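ok trying this again, last paste got cut off
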Amino acid sequence: MKYMLLIHMNTEIWDTLSEADRQEVFQGHTDFIDLITKSGELLSTEPLCAPSHTTTVRIRNNTPAITDGPYLETKEYFCGYYLIDCDTKPRALALATMIPDAKYTAIEVRPLMTPTAPAL
């Protein structure tokens, strides 16, 4: 089963971390990528730029409305993901606990829609 592990960032928390804590998070990602690459569970992973680089596109009355910035102004935002393929949901949850950001913010574990996955 494929799962997306969505990493959320809270800039108020991140801004209070020491440089050593930040380096620990970065090294934790390197170690985690190595682990799930070796296990064959990693499909892809990418970090995202900060919300200040976002453009939001909407169609209203058949007219595009394009605005700079994220859809919602929040303290937490989606900052990256791991797309994994593992045997069970408990394994996906166990992997999510290994993502270093979980120590400071949230990791959302969401199955991908497939013929055997839960419906909308």
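PB: full thing came through this time. Helices lie at 11-14, 19-38, 89-97.
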